[in-house]
Every structure is written in C-alpha cells, then in structure tokens.
Write a structure and sequence with these properties.
- By secondary structure, the protein is of the alpha/beta class.
- The chain has a single domain (5-294), classed as Spore Coat Polysaccharide Biosynthesis Protein SpsA, Chain A (Alpha-Beta Complex).
- The chain is 27% helix and 27% strand.
- Strands 1, 2, 3, 4, 6, 7, 8, 9, 10, 11 and 12 form an eleven-stranded mixed beta sheet that branches. Strands 5-13 form a two-stranded antiparallel sheet.
- Helix 1 (33-44) crosses helix 4 (127-139).
- The longest helix has 16 residues, at 224-239.
- The two termini are 24 Å apart.
Length: 303
C-alpha cells in the first residue's frame, strides 16, 4: 500500500496551551480541532502524521496530543525555528517570528519521502477533503514534467465567520479543474446572499459566494520540497533583511503555476469549514462538533 503523510502546521501556536484558542477543547470528550483532522486522515487512509512545531513546545505538545495518538498512526516531529536558515543567511536582530508557511513545510524535508497533504492545525476541513486528496495522491499517474499537485477547493460561502471578516485565497479554476490563479483576498464577509471584500486600494468588491477558495489544504509529492528549498534561498536574497516578510506556500505555488512548472488539480468539496478565528466562534465550533456527533459522523470520544 502506498504511503501518505499528513503534515500539520502547528508552529504558530502559543507557548502555553491553556490560553491558546486553537487548542481549547471543542469536542464532547475534550477533543481539540486537530484531533478531528487526524481522525479523518486515518479513516481516509493516511498512515503517517508530521507535526511542525516549535522546539520549546515539544514536551507540552506531546502531552496534549502526541502521546494520545502514538498507537494509532506513525508520528514525526519537526521544528520551525526562526534561525533555521540556509548557509550564509542570518535573521535580522529584531525579527521575532519564523518565516511563514513555506519555511514551515520545508522543515519536513528530512522526514517526508512520500506524497503528503498539508493543513493548518486550527481549521476543521471535513471528511470529504481528506478522502479526495488522499485518493488523488494514491492514484495520480501524471507523466508530466510539471509538479503534480492538488488542493481542496472549498465553497467560499462555507468558510465565512458570522463574527467578522476573513482572509481567503480566492481561486480561478479552468474548465479542466486546474488552478489558473489564486488571489489572497482580505476583509471578506457575507452580506445577504453574496460575499463582499475590499481590494488593495480599499475599495469594496463583490465575490461570487460559490467561488472555490483555498483553506491551505494542499497535496504535494516529496520532490516539491526541493523546490521549496531553492525558492527559500531566492526569497531570502530579496527579503531576508525585512522584519515581517513571509515565505508563503500559496505564493510559491502561484509562482510555479505562472512559470509553467506546476499543475494544481482543484478537488471541490462542499463540506463546511469552521475554526476559531474570533473568540466568539468557539461556541459555534463546540455546537457544530456536537451536531456531528449527534448525527453519528463522529464517536463521542475519538481516541
């Protein structure tokens, strides 16, 4: 059986879990959002999980989640650190945060040898997306000289918060289901039966509420990690002295598409995303998981 890995980006979590919104219990037996992603991934056929964390969180992280699932799936830990840079580069003295999602995934280069899916630690994606991405990675027979990638394409209307605006990667998809472009769009909110946002100049714009959007759920082959490595060097040459510049996964993918080096298959899912973007979202998330348990989609206790 072909091996597949789930990579969870969790390095952005705070130093003490007790006050971190992403790791507050939301399930009926104290589950956190990440538990549901891992459960769905195992059910879909993934047989390895890689946690991207900060080194100083390792002990606490294992106590909160790692030790509970160690007998369910193979686990690896990698560390995203601000000083983990290619030879010849050093961080600006005043920089306080790591270098973004591209650097996060690059930190897996020594442990990932199989096709893999990347997700955020604090987002609930639903079962359908895990099945579709897993099956794509298992069955892909692309003979193209391009990087063969996939992503979960969520319906914009299923990813909005009732408590404020959100930022989403709005996708342009061609007739063959291939990603043509992805535009990071901020300030999105629902107004009646449509979605509105603001452009870079601050002007209001309307977005089709049925648009496909990225929720940072990507499927890659391991050779993509070498591209991330090369791209990180280029990024640092241009931006390495900036205090807030980030090497972002969607931007790397977008650049490869424009250069004709990658083909991204958008796998549409109608599952409803939710997460704790705002403090007020937590109760909605708790109620949503309870409803899924009541419907029999999840057991009352996952692990």
């Amino acid at each position: 059986m072909k091996k597949t890995a789930l990579v969870i980006m969790a390095a952005g979590l705070g130093s003490r879990f007790g006050g971190v919104k992403q790791l507050e219990p939301v399930g009926p037996s104290g589950e956190i959002i990440m538990d549901y992603s891992i459960y769905d991934a195992i059910e879909a056929g993934f047989n390895k999980v890689v946690f991207i964390i900060r080194k100083d969180l390792e002990k606490d992280f294992k106590e909160v989640i790692g030790n509970r699932i160690g007998n369910k799936i193979e686990i690896d830990y990698v560390f995203q650190e601000i000083d983990n840079l290619p030879q010849g580069f050093t961080k600006p003295a005043e920089r306080t945060k790591p270098w973004g999602t591209g650097q996060a995934v690059l930190s897996c280069i020594d442990v990932i040898k199989e096709p893999f899916v990347v997700i955020n630690a604090d987002d609930y994606y639903g079962k359908d997306a895990f099945v579709k991405l897993h099956d794509y990675l298992i069955n892909s027979t692309s003979n193209s000289n391009k990087y063969d990638m996939c992503m979960a394409g969520f319906v914009l209307g299923n990813t909005l918060s009732e408590n404020g605006t959100v930022t989403r990667g709005v996708c342009k998809v061609d007739d063959q289901g291939i990603l043509a472009d992805i535009v990071e769009t901020s300030g999105i909110k629902q107004e009646g039966d449509k979605a509105v946002a603001v452009d870079k100049a601050g002007n209001p714009i309307e977005i089709d509420i049925d648009s496909a959007v990225s929720m940072n759920m990507w499927g890659f082959t391991p050779d993509f990690l070498k591209e991330l490595e090369t791209g990180f060097v280029e990024f640092l040459k241009k931006n390495g002295t900036e205090l807030k510049a980030e090497y972002l996964l969607p931007e790397v993918v977008g650049k490869l598409i424009k250069e004709g080096k990658a083909e991204v298959h958008v796998l549409r899912t109608t599952d409803k995303w939710f997460g704790v973007t705002y403090k007020e979202d937590k109760q909605v998330v708790v109620e949503s998981f309870q409803a899924l348990v009541n419907k029999g989609i999840y057991p009352a206790k996952l692990f």
